[in-house]
Amino acid sequence: MGDQMEPLEEKVRWTVKPLYIEAEVPGGGKIKAETGEHQLVAQEYLQDKQPRPELLLSEIAKNKGFDKQLRTRDVIDSFLAFKTYKRVKGNTYKTYKKRLNQFERAFTWLPEKPESIMSYLNQFDGETGRHKRNHHDLLHMLYEHAVMNFGWPSNPLDVLDRPIVTKRPIKTLSLEEVREIDNTPDSKRERVCLDLLLGHGWRQVEVSRILAGDVVGIRNGVIWCRGKERDEWTPILHETEERLKELARGLKPEDHVILANRIRSGQREPLGEDGMAQLVARLCARAGISGITGHDLRRSFATLVATASNDEFIAMRLIRDKIPGQNDRYIKFPMPQLREALERYSPLRLIKQKGTGSGLSHEPADSLVETGENRTPRPAEAPQNILQA
What we know:
hpI Integrase, Chain A, three-stranded antiparallel β-sheet, two-stranded antiparallel sheet, 9 strands, globular
């Protein structure tokens, strides 16, 4: 049978990539493997004096032990299914999926060698190393999943040190800079985003997560915030509430309020991480301010509130962040006091107060910053109950 067929090597299509070689043969045979290993297989096969065209690459892989490999897509799909079961937040799931799809595009078959993974991660060569470490941590979780659920022999990232993140000095705005940037929004969406980021200390992802139902549910100056640390009620300034209601008018309760301008599949999607970063950059550019990110606006809020109130505890509670040396499971801060503090110390209020221009201006701090994330479920209480706390 083999003598009547054309030699396989004349019909194989090779695609050479930086990290792998892909080969397609008649009948649908296809394999993608790390460059060094597959080159060896190809050379051995093409030097065969008696080519056997019925021996597809899948058989070559089996002879070389490649059949013990896992399809990266299979592991990713299983990993994401487990995360769905765990009820990770939607944005977290999207981030996992986006980053793992990028990994799967580089490796159809799950790589086993730490050197291959290290080579892949080296493309994330940003200034601080945070992007590389985020990808490292996610791949570590993926391989742990493969070990636990697919019988993968070991986690190759266990032998790779976790990338070091370079901490940078905290950047914050002075009150004068707050005044400048406060005049820059030229749309309702920009106005609301700046209100929440700088005037309330919200995280960018928290702004993106606001649903029309959350806006309708505002009661007594308190809104439901879908946060990173936890989902919880938090105070909101009256003018920001009114602006949100304008944006939410006509939307269904489950619709996102802060939308991107780009239309995909006939509809606008929620404003994503890149879109929010671009919005902040536009506002800063109009104010003549450079080097400030959305999270720097959150830091500015906390710094200016702490400076004006002389109370770091208030500032940390308003941004709903961890308080050093304190545990919010034991300290319950009354919501009316938080509302009063926001009304008095929000940077959007401070810039309108007389005599605070120079006294509260704040130069970039010498502290170093690095943040972390955790998530807890939504509490069952209603806003009215919280106000009575």
